[in-house]
Amino acid sequence: MIRGVIIMNDQGQPRLVKFYEYQPVEKQHELIRSIYRILCSRAENVSNFVKVDSLFGSDVRLVYKTFATLYFVFIFDNSENELAMLDLMQVFVEILDKCFSNVCELDVVFNFNKVHTILDEIILGGQVLETSTSEVVKAVEEISKMESKANWQGR
Amino acid sequence: MNEFQNHNNFMDMIRAIRACKTAAEERAVVRKECASIRAAISENDQDYRHRNLAKLMFIHMLGYPTHFGQMECLKLIASPGFPEKRIGYLGLMLLLDERQEVLMLVTNSIKQDLNHTNQYIVGLALCALGNICSAEMARDLAPEVERLLQFRDPNVRKKAALCTIRIIKKVPDLAENFINPAAALLKEKHHGVLLTGVQLCTDMCKVSTEALEYFRQKCIDGLVKVLKDLANSPYAPEYDVSGIADPFLHIRLLRLLRMLGQGDAEASDTMNDILAQVATKTESNKNAGNAILYECVATIMSIEENGGLRVLAVNILGRFLSSRDNNIRYVALNMLMKAISLDSQAVQRHRATILECVKDSDASIRKRALELVYLLVNESNVKSLTKELVDYLEISDPEFKGDLTAKICSIVEKFSPEKIWYIDQMLKVLSEAGNNVKDEVWHALIVVITNASNLHGYTVRLLYKYVQAAGEQETLIRVAVWCIGEYGEMLVANAGVLDIEDPMTITEADAVDVVETAIKRHSLDLTTRAMCLIALLKLSSRFPSCSKRINDIILHHKGSFVLELQQRAIEFNSIIEKHEKIRSALVERMPVLDEATFSGRRAGSIPAAVSTSHGAAPKVPNGVVKPASAPLVDLLDLSSDDTPAPSSSGGDFLQDLLGVDLSPASSQGTNQAQKSGTDVLLDLLSIGTPPAQSSSSTLDMLSPSQGNKKSVDMLNDLASPSAPSAQAFSPAKNSPMMDLLDGFGPSPPAPETNGSTYPSVVAFESTSLKITFSFSKDPGNPQTTSIEAQFANKSPNIYSNFVFQSAVPKFLQLHLDPASSNTLPASGTGSITQKLRVSNSQHGKKSLVMRIRISYKVNEKDVLEEGQINNFPRGL
Fold first, then answer.
1. Are residues A135 and B238, on separate chains, in Cβ contact within 8 Å?
2. CATH domain B753-869 topology
3. Do B483 and B459 contact (CB within 8 A), yes or no?
4. Is residue B779 classed exposed, middle or buried when 0-12, 13-18 and 19+ CB atoms within 10 A define those classes?
5. pLDDT tens digits for range B361-372
6. What ipTM describes this predicted complex?
7. Taking the CB of the first residue and of the last residue of chain B, which one, N or C, has fewer CB atoms within 10 A?
């Protein structure tokens, strides 16, 4: 299963943090910092997988990728296919791109609860829910509609 | 994006936080926000509740405590509006701290939302449940989720499927209720539902054998067909990932098939065809295709044996290894590691490619490849593989050298076909990466060298050559210096030249040069320089022409600030100058070290090394352990006391190296040394050994014979006028030397009869041996306890080479006097006594504790007994 999804910027500031197993907030903070340290020390021309047994227990790995100023990190155990995780990350980024038309760090910062909603349409409880970009975008649009309808009614 | 409630206020907070330049500023902003949110909560503000919670989630992400917002989540979830519910559920998933009472409160709201008419609200509830469901909630809500598995909208069905996974993980008993609805999901056409359905079935198989059997019986053909259709399906743009149709579904299907095929030949058979098809037809130029191939390989490796498929799978991995994509090489190496236990032949075929990966620019790939190569080594390929690795050692990254060196050494030790090859490879490694070689490796090398008598000359010449070229590798220098000390004359005389050697001319001076250069090198540590001094002493006897020069070098160290070097220099100098007659006997060549004993020791020394590295565990104080039978041991024991590195495992070995008593095959050389050299060596090195008859004038000061007692008394009296006369000690047990040293302390121990107020204890008893401790204390020095150990032999056989060793935790200090004898007569007809002195720095707080080890020989067999003594009388 997927243990967590983290988006952070190249300064190590978290932009989205979602753990699918309960982590106390202090621990979360610590994990993010450790992961940031790991990512910073990675050379350029190396694989995108890092073993993180020491942080999460045996057989847990993370895959990371940089998009502009952001690190995307998926943490997962041995019941997931590493290469598929890489693809899933691609799917996630593509969807963000569609929802924010050319996503940038500020989009993620100011819309972080929308990003959560998007992520919840892709991964649920650490399992892959949907991988079709169009399906996810459609679902998110429906939710947006619900939101604005309620907001109109509310005003 | 207004629909996602980016009210200005929320944006303002984020802007304020982003504008902070320091952590302190950020904390201040967050504190202010939290205060106002708390105020709003206590006023039960409804209008801004979800806005405040959104802020709290952001604050939580930054790592600040937000527990006070949890109840707000519940209120939002219970409110009727969609935006409120959405934020409420989001907050529930993020802020929840697994407190049972909160979960109990929310269960009812979730239940209502699962039955809501609005499918999006149902979706929110399912999502939250799938993320945070507890065992209690699972039991309460399982019927709702089960019903939703058949909901009309596919988006709800797929969420319900994943929610079910969480439920059955929390309560595996519930799995059987879900078998039928889960199996029904496998017939879905909607990709998303099918994907989650397959995943659900996979997880059910993990928790329920009943489910596993059911799916095996009923679903396997269907699954094979789904996979076949998918593999042959035309292009489907909505599920396309870089040109491959729905790789995720492929992967999930392959994984479920693996689950079903494992351990079931019939099921495995059913899927062979489709696996072969996926393995051969999937395009491998894109990551998505490779992900499928990788999964397919994993499935082929796990299901029941099909030789042809396995070869196909290993070949795919071989192809992966030559991929330019680091990620693909990385996963391939991981998988090959698993494959090697299944079909090492097939993996061996890709040896060359794997070896290339050892030289990869990516450190994690190199590391993995190296581990894999290590697994691939066998008797037939060891030479070629080692050559490749040793060659690569030259050009490898400095940070990789450690790993690489360790693996090469391990390979060479394990598979070496012959001694000369072993020595060749090891010397190459030492000269390339000697600073990365662990102590036990070069210790083992020396053992091998001493055992290869026909290669002594060859080895020492080779070392001479290497050390000229790579003089900065410490372990190389150690081995070279040791060998030159031992076999120096073979170096010069070109003794035992092998056909493969080029002729060399080395003079005696050249050989001394090597050692002199080494000892002058300041980067080298104490052990190495101490070894140099020993080598010089040996050479002084082997090369009479250089004796004067060597003595000068040794003299140079008489003023060394390092006590150990200074002591050696003074001792060796007096051996060279004053004991010409015995010198050659003293510095005889080392006896051949017994390989079996060494490997046994090496295995046994591992715990010692561990305990030293942890620091807290009792450490064997090598400098204190003084088997009386082996005066030579003292020589190196003292050194290991000062140098931290060899004191753990190295110390043990060094003891072996010179510890004559421990090598069964002791040659006459050392025995002679023991006999003829006893007097001097004892005086020189073993403080507190009964002095022998002869004593030379230089040594008088250090080892007064019994006749010289007056001087001792004098010193004693000087140091502490009130001290009782040293005459009170029995000269046989407490040597004058001891008195001398004690005299320098604040107050020397009182005669034992005065302080003996503690009962004797049986410290250790086995079927063969009994040790009794009797105690005495000096009233003026309560921290120190004198112990007289008495050893009694309970067996009918004589014990020879009897050595008692002991270790104490850090708060204690232990001093062992030599034992009265090293032979223990049979059946309790006699005993050995040995004196110990223990200083307890925690006197009054902690009581004594001691770990002991007794080794002896009985009927030509080595026996080792160990124990811990906890029954010391209180207050010692």
1. yes
2. Immunoglobulin-like (2.60.40)
3. yes
4. exposed
5. 888 888 888 888
6. 0.94
7. N
